[in-house]
Design goal:
By secondary structure, the protein is an alpha+beta fold. The chain is built from ten helices and 20 strands. The radius of gyration is 24 Å and the shape is elongated. It starts with a strand and ends with a helix.
Length: 393
Amino acid sequence: MQKYDVAIIGGGASGLACAVGIKERDKNLSVVILEKGERAGRKIAASGNGQGNVSNVDLSASHYHGSGAFLAEKLCCSGLYNPLELFDFLFINDKLGRIYPAGKQGSALSDCLLKKVKEAGVDLVLSTSVESVERGYKLSLSDGNTILADRLVMSAGGAAQKQFGTDGSAYNLVKSLGHTVTPVSPSLVQLRCDTRHIKTLKGIRAECKVTAYGADGKILGVAEGDVIFTDYGVSGNAVFYVSAYCSGEENVTLSLEFLPEISVGQIENDVRNKIEKGYPQSELLCGTLHNQLGRAIMRRCGGCDPRTVAQTVKNFTLKAEGSLGFDYAQVTRGGVPACEVDENLQSRLAPNLYFAGEILDVDGDCGGYNLTWAFCSGMHAAKSIVNSFDTDD
């Protein structure tokens, strides 16, 4: 049985940031990270399609959701913490404001944090899950060992991407300590749709504006970017973005506006010109849109009326029928409600218990917002923990 000052459950972005932050403030505190996977930081390395979308130039509060959105506003958007300071290399941002390592390699982020953890003397226990936790804190591990800790950090993520170990099992641990968990749903995920009108479009990518409407016709979310048609529905950056607003909603309709920079009148004139030149109905949008997409729109119109065709180009609707679920989602919506933690991310229900990252009811839009929350909340928990030891002294 080994005793530590701080035990951290979960070796993802928030857990690693927390460990680094603790040791930078007080190198004499003993810290252990317990990670059920074979390697810590795997989800960090996979972020931004493997390029490491670590943050965003526009860190405004509107990009965060959940009962803890106000916490993200305080920790991420106010300048209180800068996650880029965790790393030792240059960063760049693209035209959408997404911030990446200059080398565009997500694994560089995790490698840097793991290097700092090792050099700081943090114990990293891999391929080992925490089976149970008793207040005090006594942690029973899957390898049969037991760990004692004065402070405990829950940073084990949510239920999204179980291939990285975040399978939702950590919720049972926090419940055993008296906490609750809000209903959870997958976010930043591909959407299933009624595919009757897009069966011929599998694999085609189109730049468009996507608007998601709720059952009452209210706009849930809007995004511009790429949409990829699939055999189950739609994917792509714009879809990931609006999926965050569709999470947990029923009877959602997606409106795809192709050619957002071109007016209805211009499209109408283009169609009319092709009709006058003898183009067949199926080819009235050829060259204006991808040929397969144009034919799909013409089939849906069922005629050659230029106005109807132009309006369909601007409002191609699909009925959403859910998502691909947690296995494909980048993040979890829901978690431990913010009312159960204080401004230091310390539990209001169990002494010396802290939370960081996705396990809390905070989620962000696509574009680096979730990694920013993970890093900033981990850094804040670290500060709070070190301050608590100072107070004890």
